[in-house]
Amino acid sequence: MTDSLQYPQEEPDFNVAISLSLVLIGFDGQQLQILVAKSARKPFEGALMLPSRYIHHTAEFMLSARKMFEQLFGYDDPEIIEQLQAFGKVYRHPGGRVVNVAHYALVRKEDFQAERWEKYGMQWVPYLQMPDLAYDHNDIVQYAKERLKRRVKRRPVGFNLLPEEFTLGQLQTLYEAALGKSFDKRNFRKKLFKTTLLIDLEKKSDGSGRGQHKGSQLFGFNREKYEKMKLTGYDFLF
Asked: Quick one: average pLDDT of 161-186?
């Protein structure tokens, strides 16, 4: 029987490429969405995929992810950006061995530099109705969804997706989509008001905001309370 662990070890195989993909999750006021692009390379030319790039062997993953984000949104410090995991199935890429180190970020859709990138086929697709993506990018999206679900259950990360002024209906819609479940409206609001996260702006929506009904009460969130709760979590579970 040959030992799998050898000393000294065999020389490593350096013929492995590294790529990085971003799962960018936004909210349009009515539904969660994910940003995708069109592949320009065969054999998936024209197919939808996550924004991705190959990275140099000396590149640091998070810095590379932030640089990609900056190119798309104009700044490199989203409030929520995290590394997910490496996706490295042997035959995930038809051109050779490519290990993908995926990241996800929560974004405000209005920050996306659409005029620069839409000509390259970048578009938003529904979070709950993801199309077939190239490579194993559907697996990456599913992993990001599970990460978001865990975060939203315990910490107020969903507030990063909302406009500065939002309705409780928008907030509930967002959380229901992220968690994949429905909430009783009364109980949902009772939990939120208990946190003292919400600030009543004492004004009503004029109905112009997507997903806002005319006359609905508008809220903001308590930034100081929010920063603390990002670290400590809620005192209840969704």
From this structure: 92
Is the domain of 161 the same as that of 146? no
Give the pair of three-digit tokens for residue 63.
Answer: 């810095």
Q: What is the pLDDT of residues 116-145, one digit of tens each?
A: 898 889 999 999 999 999 999 999 999 999
pLDDT above 70: percentage of residues in the chain: 97
User: Which residues make Cβ contacts (< 8 Å) with residue 18, sequence separation at least 6?
Assistant: 54, 55, 57, 59, 98, 99, 100, 101
- Same domain? 80 vs 130: yes
Angle (CA) 109 103 52, round 5°:
80
Give this prediction's pTM: 0.90
Q: How many CB atoms lie within 10 A of CB 14?
A: 6
Domain that holds residue 55: 17-152
Going by the DSSP 8-state scheme, the letter that residue 56 receives in this structure is -
Element at 149 (helix H, strand E): helix 137-154
C-alpha span between 227 and 222 (Å, rounded): 9
H or E segment at 23? strand 17-27
Looking up tokens 């697996």 gives 139
Q: Which residues of 156-179 are buried (b: 16+ CB within 10 A; e: fewer)?
A: bbbbbbbbeebbbbbbbbbbebbb
Helix (H, G, I), strand (E, B) or coil at 202: strand
**What CATH number is given to the structural domain containing 124?**
3.90.79.10
